[in-house]
Every structure is written in C-alpha cells, then in structure tokens.
Amino acid sequence: SECRWDGQFLLNCSFTRISTIPEDLSQIAVTADLSYNNIKTFVCSDGRNEEWMLKHLNLSNNLISELTLTTCINLPILETLNLNGNAIHTLTMDMPTPAHGSKKYSTVDRLLPALKVLSVERNNLNRVPRGLGLLQSLQTVHMSSNAIQQIDPKDFQNCSQLKDIDLRNNKITKIHPDAFRELNKLQVVVDLRENALTIPLPQILVSLNFFQLEVYLSKSAW
Fold first, then answer.
1. Which residues contact 66 (CB under 8 A, 6 or more apart)?
2. In the predicted structure, residue 5 carries a pLDDT above the cut 70
3. Which of 22, 31, 113, 155 could join 128 in a cystine, given CB atoms 3.0 to 4.6 angstroms apart?
4. Rounded Cα gap, residues 123 and 155, in angstroms
5. 3-state SS class at 202
6. How far, in Å, CA of 60 to CA of 83, rounded?
7. Does pLDDT of 4 surpass 80?
8. Where is 39: in which H helix or E strand?
9. What is d(CA 119, CA 159) in angstroms, rounded to the nearest whole number?
10. Contacts of 59 (CB under 8 A, 6+ apart)
C-alpha cells in the first residue's frame, strides 16, 4: 500500500485515498493513522485472530457510517480510538464471544479492555451509543457535534472510570436526573454547551455528588 511505516512504532496511511484497510499493515505498530481517506467499512478482526500491538488508532475523516466494536478481540491494548468526522449513525457495542471451538478468547470478559479515550465527534449519532459500560477502562468520551437528543439514565451505566464527557453542539433537550449519578470519578468536564436544554439546572446538579466538576452550559435554550 501507499502507507508509510517507520519500521518501529508509527504506521501513517493518512491522505493516501485508500477505500479499504490495507492487508499488509504491520501488526507490531503502536500507532496507526488512517485519517482523511475514503474508508467506508472497518472490521477489527481479520479472521486470523492475531493480536495487534496498537495503542492508538485514528480513523477520523473517513466515510464510515456503521461500526461494531464487538469484533475487536484482537486489539487488547488499544487505548485511544478516534472516529471523528465520519458519518456514523450506528455504533454497536456488545460482549465479544469466542469462535466455536476456539480457546484463544475463552477468557475474554471485557470489550476493548484497555480503551481509555473514545472520540466520535462530528458524526450522525442521534443517541448515546448503548453499552459504553462494557468499555471498563473508558475515561474520556467525546461526542460533540452529533444529533443526540436526550441523555437517558442508562446511557453511562457502569462507566465507573469515566472522568470527562463532551456533549457540545448536539440537540439535547432532556437529561434524566440520574444520568450521571454513578459516575463517581467524573472530575474534569461535563460539556453541554450549544444544546437546547429546557430542564432546570438544579435538577441536573442535585444528582451530582462531586466536589470538583466543571459543567459548561452556555448557549442552551434557557
């Protein structure tokens, strides 16, 4: 492929106009940049069940519309996943299951167990992806500039490590008062700027039990 490989850590495929993931990608790369291309489909597992050494994967500014993370059993140490600037309307997460008769993944009990940062900005999501709680190392989730309309009580359920949430520039009108109740480590930001919130501010904050928390709310309806 036209990708550039430094021979050790970085695989750079950005601006190469590829439409599919090259088959000759090195599995020892730590960082893979596949941004600014014409990729429409990304499937984590290639069927060979060989684990990749990737810690940082950049798929931003492509043409991906649907994505499932359930198949990502071959990315056990992935820490950051950048999906910004695609056309994602469906992001599916579920518990991975080993192939029939396979013992290699029989001990898998978590989805992307090392993932800390998930960024899905500038896409077409109309709801918070279900199953974020399966990403048990997740600390930061960025979902600004989508079409999310409300925050439900189970949207961030079991996200025990979550510290930073960015929901700027969506279409949020309602936030359930228990939506952030379980997020005991939330300490950086709940960014709700440029939404259409109509509920009273105290109703949100009464369920937040944090001493260090920034809540950005400018340019909301009220």
1. 88, 89, 90, 91, 92
2. yes
3. 155
4. 18
5. helix
6. 5
7. yes
8. none
9. 15
10. 34, 35, 39, 42, 81, 82, 83, 86
State how far the Cα of 173 lies from the Cα of 168, in Å rounded to an integer: 12
Rounded to whole angstroms, the Cα distance separating 190 from 108 reads 31
- C-beta of residue 202 within 8 angstroms of C-beta of residue 186: no
Q: What is the pLDDT of residue 58?
A: 97
The answer to whether 55 and 32 have CB atoms below 8 angstroms apart is no
This prediction has a pTM of 0.85
Name the amino acid, one letter, at 40: K
